[in-house]
């Protein structure tokens, strides 16, 4: 997730096909687990950073340059980076975080140009 052209945090979708369902674990730009998640929860296990994490961050910042907020999705498969999508309004702007105060914490990072 890029705010004002800079990577602030990222999330990893895992356990999509498990009995507990999809888990979304949020990490900061240094791959330290952050203290919030989406309502469906985070993985209980620590996930390794992608081998190309630094390259992914660099590409995300180039793609998000000049925008207030942009989620840039990448996948890493067998050591290769694949582009997923660009999202200006995740979940149509209704994406929630748990605990709820992280909605404001992340929202405060957006420096609206107007």
Structure description:
- This protein is of the alpha+beta class and 114 residues long.
- The protein has one domain.
- Helix content is 17%, strand content 33%.
- The protein is built from 2 helices and 7 strands.
- The strands form 2 sheets. The chain has a 4-stranded antiparallel sheet, covered by helices on one side.
- Strand 3 (9-14) and strand 4 form a beta hairpin.
- It is globular and about 45 Å long.
SSE map:
Blueprint: E1 2-3, E2 6-7, E3 9-14, E4 23-28, E5 33-37, H1 53-64, E6 69-77, E7 80-87, H2 101-107
Antiparallel strand pairs: 1-2, 1-6, 3-4, 4-5, 6-7
What structural keywords apply?
alpha+beta; four-stranded antiparallel beta sheet; globular; three-stranded antiparallel beta sheet; single chain; 114 residues
Can you list the strand order of the major beta sheet? 2-1-6-7
Q: Which quaternary structure do these chains form?
A: single chain
Question: Strand fraction band?
Answer: 25-35%
Instruction: Count the domains.
Output: 1
Number of helix segments?
2
For the largest beta-sheet, the strand count, sense and barrel status come to: 4 strands, antiparallel
Number of DSSP-assigned strands:
7
Q: What is the residue-mean pLDDT, rounded to a whole number?
A: 93
**Helicity range of the residues?**
10-25%
Straight-line N-to-C gap: 21 Å
Uncertain residue ranges: none
Q: Radius of gyration from the CA trace? A: 14 Å
Class inferred from helices and paired strands: alpha+beta
Order of helices and strands: EEEEEHEEH
């Amino acid at each position: 997730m890029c705010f004002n052209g800079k990577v602030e945090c990222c999330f990893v979708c895992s356990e999509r096909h498990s009995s507990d369902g999809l888990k979304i674990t949020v990490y900061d730009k240094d791959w330290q687990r952050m203290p919030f998640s989406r309502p469906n929860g985070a993985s209980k296990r620590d996930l390794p950073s992608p081998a190309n994490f630094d390259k992914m961050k660099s590409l995300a910042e180039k793609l998000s340059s000049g925008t207030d907020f942009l989620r840039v999705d990448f996948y890493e498969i067998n050591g290769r980076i694949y582009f997923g999508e660009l999202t200006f309004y995740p979940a149509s702007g209704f994406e929630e975080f748990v605990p709820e105060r992280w909605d404001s914490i992340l929202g405060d990072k957006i420096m609206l140009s107007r």
